[in-house]
Amino acid sequence: MSDDAFAAATAAIITAGQRMDRFGWVPATAGNISVRLPDGVVAITRSGGHKGFLDAQGVIRVDLEGRPLRAGDRPSAETGLHCGIYRRFPEAGAVLHGHSVPVTHLSRRSAGDAILLQGYELLKAFPGLPTHAAAIALPVLDNDQDIARLQRAVDARWDMSGTVPPGYLIRGHGIYVWGADMPTALLRLEALEFMLACELEARRAA
Ligand SMILES: CSCCC(=O)C(=O)COP(=O)(O)O
Ligand SMILES: [Zn+2]
């Protein structure tokens, strides 16, 4: 296990938390952040702290089943969702979860199981979408305090989807986004947050 890789992942997680906090996406103790290490272990935020004020002690290691490597460490309550992404997508190297106003409001107001994003230039931030004329159906899943059951629902949704976008919403709760590395995950989160903020404005104006 490389301490250098863990230190680099911890630094990336701290910086990502500060950036998400600057945008107001991790209010109170909301949100969690992780990075997959080269040995397959996952570096993830501890449960409960403010993600805009993380220090190195705020990041710990878990295995792909979400079990802490060090007895007594308490990883994010949503570790199972991070691990579900890493297990399903071998190319995923970083996962971000936030609770922004547009995500929370839109997912509460949308009765359906997806939010369609179309006509946005920023869609080009996503893999396989070379033009604004493309669209993303961003899955929306019902919230569940039982994270193992919620992950089973996420897996079932992925099973029945053709193309899976690298993100989904949990109704009234938040957003999950992933990428090959932290810069890619952050770029996708920013693009989705921007488009969802536009959707919120459009629905207000309608
Ligand atoms: C006060 S936010 C409720 C828990 C949550 O949804 C979240 O994102 C933060 O949980 P964690 O255990 O990762 O701190
Ligand atoms: Zn959450």
Automatic annotation (TrEMBL):
Cofactor descriptive note: Binds 1 zinc ion per subunit.
Molecular functions per Gene Ontology: aldehyde-lyase activity; methylthioribulose 1-phosphate dehydratase activity; zinc ion binding
Metabolic or biological pathway, per its Swiss-Prot or TrEMBL entry: Amino-acid biosynthesis; L-methionine biosynthesis via salvage pathway; L-methionine from S-methyl-5-thio-alpha-D-ribose 1-phosphate: step 2/6
Reactions the enzyme catalyzes: 5-(methylsulfanyl)-D-ribulose 1-phosphate = 5-methylsulfanyl-2,3-dioxopentyl phosphate + H2O
EC id: 4.2.1.109
Protein origin, superkingdom: Bacteria
GO BP term, example: L-methionine salvage from methylthioadenosine
InterPro entries, per the entry: Aldolase_class_II_sugar_metab (IPR050197), Aldolase_II/adducin_N (IPR001303), Aldolase_II/adducin_N_sf (IPR036409), MethylthioRu-1-P_deHdtase_MtnB (IPR017714)
UniProt KW keywords: Amino-acid biosynthesis, Lyase, Metal-binding, Methionine biosynthesis, Zinc
Assigned GO CC terms: cytosol
Top EC class for this record: lyase
Start and end residues of each Class II aldolase/adducin N-terminal domain: 11-200
Cofactor: Zn(2+)
Chain sites annotated for binding Zn(2+): H97, H99
Similarity annotation: Belongs to the aldolase class II family. MtnB subfamily.
Function: Catalyzes the dehydration of methylthioribulose-1-phosphate (MTRu-1-P) into 2,3-diketo-5-methylthiopentyl-1-phosphate (DK-MTP-1-P).
Record's protein name: Methylthioribulose-1-phosphate dehydratase
Species assigned in the record: Roseicella aquatilis
Taxonomic lineage: Bacteria, Pseudomonadati, Pseudomonadota, Alphaproteobacteria, Acetobacterales
